């Protein structure tokens, strides 16, 4: 419940902050344009009738401002931009109006907050996202190399590509035209450098997953098929506090539930919402494909993961593996499209991951 006297909305940009304060006793509105620094914001807040509460939208400027305000004893709310309630007929949008809207919504307790991660949690999240960027860069580099060769009628047929044998074959390619050779060498060099960057990030994530604060949850999530160390660590840092959700709500948070437009006796559902964390959703969708294969006896890799987890987590993971594979079989029997079936399995997989994350050791 809002208990402060003054509610403040901040429209934060890279080079300026437009602030609007609303005195809930007198109704006075106070406005100021500030430089983008916590010190300038705090100096202005001290001029307002105390106590003060502040709200601003989550965005590219991050959470440093919120952390500094909280450290100074000011309650700060970081709003989810997609959940802000704006008047449908409002056709004028300015920084000052946005700041005033935030101040009013804060006063009415109508702001949906986003979770502000700690500095350590944000560092782990940055590491995971750097690895995700390296994965995408590597895919694009490989496409450039293979498509350059394809344009000149060269196709690799020695087995699976992008392994040691394939790399040796690539290094042996020679072209008569100097321009083609220089372009190929540049693309191959970029691919090898990106591969090395991805491997270094993989090593760093593996070390952090084994020894950091996420080690216990990574071991428990690893009891499920398709959830390796990289996937488990990515889910752990992206979701953060799993206790915010339940097994039924975690799927909606990750955008794995269908859109809906229903009224009266009519109910219409569409594709998934794709709301929430894109990276976590992709990890779950990729992991769900692993449950399509038969599951009778766990393999050596799965048994090795189970040895690192508690008996309760092992039993829970085994039950989840059986259940998710059964779901796949039901969808296949109903002749459901595989991509749609996989998303449905991913939604249920999110619930199983939640149950393991909150299980405890």
Beta-strand residue percentage: 5-15%
| Mean pLDDT, all residues | 94
Secondary-structure element series: EEEHEHEHHHHHHHEEHHHH
Class from secondary-structure proportions: alpha/beta
Give the overall shape: globular
Number of domains: 3
- Order of strands, widest sheet: 3-2-1-4-5
User: How many extended strands?
Assistant: 7
Overall radius of gyration: 26 Å
Number of helices: 13
Q: How much helicity do the residues have?
A: 40-55%
Major sheet summary line? 5 strands, mixed
Whole-Å distance between the termini?
35 Å
Low-confidence stretches: none
Short description:
The chain has 13 helices and seven strands. It is an alpha/beta fold and 361 residues long. The radius of gyration is 26 Å and the shape is globular.
Structure description:
This protein is of the alpha/beta class. The chain has 3 domains: 6-107, ATPase, nucleotide binding domain (Nucleotidyltransferase, domain 5, 2-Layer Sandwich), CATH 3.30.420.40; 120-211, no CATH class; 215-357, no CATH class. It has 13 helices and 7 strands. It has helices at residues 38-45, 64-71, 95-107, 119-151, 164-171, 178-211, 215-221, 229-239, 250-253, 278-289, 300-308, 311-333, 338-357, and strands at residues 6-12, 17-23, 29-34, 52-57, 75-79, 258-260, 269-272. It has a 5-stranded mixed β-sheet. Strands 6-7 form a two-stranded antiparallel ribbon. The model has no long low-confidence stretch (mean pLDDT 94).
How is this fold's topology laid out?
Blueprint: E1 6-12, E2 17-23, E3 29-34, H1 38-45, E4 52-57, H2 64-71, E5 75-79, H3 95-107, H4 119-151, H5 164-171, H6 178-211, H7 215-221, H8 229-239, H9 250-253, E6 258-260, E7 269-272, H10 278-289, H11 300-308, H12 311-333, H13 338-357
Parallel strand pairs: 1-4, 4-5
Antiparallel strand pairs: 1-2, 2-3, 6-7
């Amino acid at each position: 419940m809002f208990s402060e006297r003054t509610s403040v909305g901040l429209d934060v940009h890279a080079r300026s902050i437009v602030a609007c304060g609303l005195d809930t006793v007198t109704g006075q509105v106070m406005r100021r344009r500030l430089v983008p620094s916590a010190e300038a914001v705090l100096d202005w807040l001290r001029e307002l009738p105390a106590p003060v509460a502040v709200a601003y939208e989550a965005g590219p400027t991050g959470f440093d401002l919120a952390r500094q305000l909280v450290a100074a004893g000011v309650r700060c709310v970081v709003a989810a931009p997609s959940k802000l309630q704006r008047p449908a007929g409002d056709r004028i949008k300015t920084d000052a109006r946005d700041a005033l809207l935030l101040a009013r919504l804060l006063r009415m307790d109508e702001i949906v907050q986003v979770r502000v991660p700690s500095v350590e949690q944000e560092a782990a999240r940055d590491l995971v996202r750097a690895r995700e960027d390296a994965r995408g860069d590597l895919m694009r580099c490989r496409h450039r190399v293979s498509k350059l060769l394809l344009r000149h009628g060269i196709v690799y047929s020695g087995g699976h590509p992008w392994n040691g044998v394939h790399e040796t074959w690539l290094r042996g390619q020679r072209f008569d035209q100097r321009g083609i050779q220089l372009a190929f060498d540049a693309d191959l060099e970029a691919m090898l450098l990106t591969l090395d960057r991805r491997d270094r990030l993989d090593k760093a994530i593996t070390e952090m997953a084994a020894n950091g604060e996420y080690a216990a949850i990574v071991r428990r999530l690893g009891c499920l098929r398709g959830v390796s160390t990289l996937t488990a660590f990515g889910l752990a840092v992206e979701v953060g506090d799993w206790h915010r959700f339940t097994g039924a709500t975690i799927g909606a948070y990750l955008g794995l539930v269908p859109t809906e437009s229903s009224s009266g006796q009519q109910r219409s559902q569409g594709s998934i919402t794709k709301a929430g964390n894109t990276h976590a959703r992709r990890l779950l969708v990729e992991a769900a494909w692993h449950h399509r294969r038969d599951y009778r006896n766990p393999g050596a890799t799965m048994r090795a993961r189970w040895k690192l987890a508690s008996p309760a987590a092992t039993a829970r993971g085994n039950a989840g593996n059986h259940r998710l594979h059964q779901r796949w079989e039901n969808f296949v029997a109903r002749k459901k499209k595989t991509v749609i079936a996989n998303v449905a399995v991913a939604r249920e997989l999110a619930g199983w991951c939640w149950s393991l994350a909150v299980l405890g050791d």
